[in-house]
Amino acid sequence: MRRLSTVELMLLTTIVLWALNLTVSRYILTHGFQPLAYSSARYGLAVLVFLALTIVLEGSLRLSRRDLAIAGAAACFVFVNQIAFVYALERTTASVLGLVLGATPIFAALFGLAARLETLSRRFWLGALLSFAGVALVALGSGGEVSGDLGGVLLGVLTAATWAVYSILVTPLMRRHSATKISAIVLGLAWIPIVLTGATQISRQDWSLGWEVWLLFVFATLGPLVVTNELWFRALDRIGPARATLAANLQPFVAAAFAVVLLSEKLSAVELAGGVLIAVGILAARRRRLPAPHAQ
User: Would residue 64 be called left, alpha or beta, if left means φ above 0 and alpha means ψ between -120 and 50 degrees?
Assistant: First the structure.
C-alpha cells in the first residue's frame, strides 16, 4: 500500500480533530458546562495560546488599520458563530449538527457570489439545491425525541452560514499575515463579546466538573482550535485550497459517524437521506473554492 504523504497526514489529522470536536463538545455541554461559560473559557484559553505563539514567533501583533477593520468584521461573525454553535449542540445531537455543517461550502460559495468574488455555474446551482434539500430533510427528521428539535437544526444552519462569511472575510488577511497572528487577533476580538454575553452563566457556573470534563475541555481547545489551525494552513500552502477544501468536506460526515459510535446517538432514515443529499450536492457543486479556516 502507498504510504500517506505528509500533507495527507496533516489533512487527515485535521479532519479527525474537527470531527471529534462535535462529539467532545456535546459531551462537555451535557456534563455540567453551560454553553456560554464553555465558549468563553475555551476561546479564552485558545487566545492566550495564540497570543503567546505570535509574540514568541513574530514579536508583534501589529496590523494595518485596513486589516484591523477586516479582522474586527471577521470577529463579529466568529462571535455569532460560537453562540449558534454551542446552543445548536445543546439543543440537538452532534450527529445531526455534523450533517447540517456539511452545507458550509455551499454557503461559502453563495456569499462569495454576493461579494462578487466568483461566478457560479449551473452545476453549482444544482448542487446547492440538492444540499439545501438535504438540510431540509435533516430538519424534517429532527423533530423526534432522539435527534433534538428544529431550533437546533436552524442554529446549525446559522453556524454554517456565519463560518462561511468568516472564511471569506479572513482569506485576504492570510495572504499578508500568518495564521497564528490572525487567529490571535480575530479570536481575541471575538472573545470579548462572548465573555460579555456569557457573564451571567460564567458567574453561575459550577467549575467542579471532574477531571474527565476538564481533560476533554483542554483537548477541545488545543486540538480543534490550535493544532488544526496550523495544520490546515500548512496544507493549503502545499496543495492549494481546491484540493484541501475538497478533503475537508468529509469532516461533517466523519463527525456524524463519531457521534453515533461514541455517544450512541441515532440517526433516522430521513436524516441519513438528508446527509446523503448534502454530500451529493457538494460533489455536484465541486469547484475551486476559497480556503476556509479551521472549524469550530
Answer: beta
From CA 185, how far away is CA 177, in angstroms rounded?
A: 11
**How far, in Å, CA of 251 to CA of 239, rounded?**
18
In which band, very low, low, confident or very high, does the pLDDT at 139 lie, cut at 50, 70 and 90? low
The residues, any chain, with a CB within 8 Å of residue 37's CB and separated by 6 or more, are 198, 201, 202, 205
Q: With a cut of 70, say whether residue 260 has pLDDT above it.
A: yes
All residues at 6 or more sequence positions from 59 whose CB lies less than 8 Å from its CB, including other chains: none
Question: Of 31, 43, 51, 84, whose CA–CA distance to 214 is shortest?
Answer: 31
Residue 147 has pLDDT above 50, yes or no: no
Alpha carbon distance 245, 233 (integer Å): 11
| Per-residue pLDDT band at 144 (split at 50, 70, 90) | very low
